Records
---
Amino acid sequence: MARYTGPITKKSRRLKTDLVGGDKNFEMRPFPPGQHGRGRVQEKEYLTQLQEKQKARFTYGVMEKQFVRYYKEAARRPGKTGEILLTILESRLDSVIYRAGLARTRRAARQMVTHGHFEVNGKRVDVPSYRVEQYDIITVRKQSREKFPVQLARETFGERQAPAWMHVSPETLQILIHSLPTREQIDIALTEQLIVELYSKN
């Protein structure tokens, strides 16, 4: 299962956005890395579109090949391609765990899923890209309830409010998916139309 394992703060600085959330190193130096980082970069249309796509990729921890598959799926569905693409990305299990407040970062959420701490509708799932559906119920596995990542999730639960499209039980950390999110419910600084424009050229 391929994933980006390099320095994420460097990517944040290159793309001028905090991809981690609360990254103190990015806040200290919010300019591109390298000796020419403070220089002016000529903003061209292609560069702007490419940066927006890279923002989405690194925010959700998705490799290029998988991201293209998501885009093609979104393009086949009726509706606005960019908004459907974001809904697909938000419905990944690792993103749902992050949005529910059970992990401080998406990387941590991905690791918790990979280690098999969760069940979806009573079945163990350890694939971060697993897509949840409306009315799915996500629970912490009985064997994982006393393990450190889950204990930490209990201690930090409530630091970030869960979105309206899901309900999270504070006692059991059970997640109920009311519906898949709409664009208005996705709190992320992305201009998805630029991604659509980039891929539509090919």
---
Amino acid sequence: MNTFLLTGLHRLRRLLHAPRFCLLALAVLAAPVSAQPVAWPQPPEVAARSYLLMDVTANQMLAGKDIDTPVEPASLTKLMTAYVVFDALRAKKIDLKQTLPVSERAWRMPGSRMFIDPKMQVPVEDLLKGMIVQSGNDATVALAEGVGGTVERFVEMMNAQARALGMKATTFKNPEGLTEPGHTTTARDLSILATRLMTDFPQYVGYYAIKKYRYPGTPTANDTNRNLLLFRDPSVDGLKTGHTAAAGYCLIATAKRDYPNVGPRRLLAIVLGAASENDRANEAQKLLNWGYAAFDAVKLFEAGQPVATPPVWKGTEKVVKLGRPQPIVVAVPSGAAAQVKTQVVRPDPLVAPFAQGQQLGVLKLTLADQPLLDVPLVVLEPVEQAGLFGRAWDSLRLWIR
């Protein structure tokens, strides 16, 4: 009898530490249809060294050319400068009303300028507008020195942030984007930076839609945003221009248009190495218009809606809710929505505890039986670990199963 009890306890102990196994759970959201081949829309000809079009709402790349080719970013660099400054604002290391001095180094910066000088103490918010709207290299250096102490330290912060965001092919040598050996990025990395900037700091995205700005006492002729699409397309609300002799004319343009059953849908066009200011605007507009026309947006799940509710073992709840805090939207070629299918891939068994926001599976999307997109699923509501008796009882049930 004692031997039998000891054997049972040993089995329970092994089950408490049992490894998890993978399980595929299939859910078809579209009406049953026979899978017909779907032709992926062909993008228009784009007169640029490289380009990329992304559906930000669906987190999908729709088209691109030479997206991993190293390029000089010119003043698109200032998107990372802004990201680091916004992060300092979020951490309350600085605030928008705080004034910063203008160093001799900032004052003497060549290229695009805000036209501030060492006699001035300029509020952070005005420096941000000077950097974003006027692309001022002087404002950029003043911000870098104010946040990093020195420009060199700030550049270290930029590169650390690039690594944290997953910008694997990017190295920054300065905060403003003037040509310097080794100061390079790619269209893919710029798409990561631009989308994270908008996602992580929505409260500051409005700066990029400002059409005209100048600081009091500076030239009135220097007040116009160089993003021509802000004046041509009411759906465009950003994001940044860039130009040097080596980089050519560059633009990251983003637009937001309302779609039935989806709501605001944002696209992002990146055009690098165009021949002129007008060309970069025309090519970006061409990409945005094509993206909205050639692809439908399909909302599969609302924000916070459970995609799956699998059973939980050894927890205070019987199931765990898996989904996304944001709506799950997919972009598909126009007219192909009925051929979207979903498949949930998750571990099994699911043994508590689970923290809110913890990734716990993937929603695999296919179109006409071809892979389309993988969407990470997270825990929507935490599940605590059960007490000793509950864990022991579930261990016995798992053993029997």
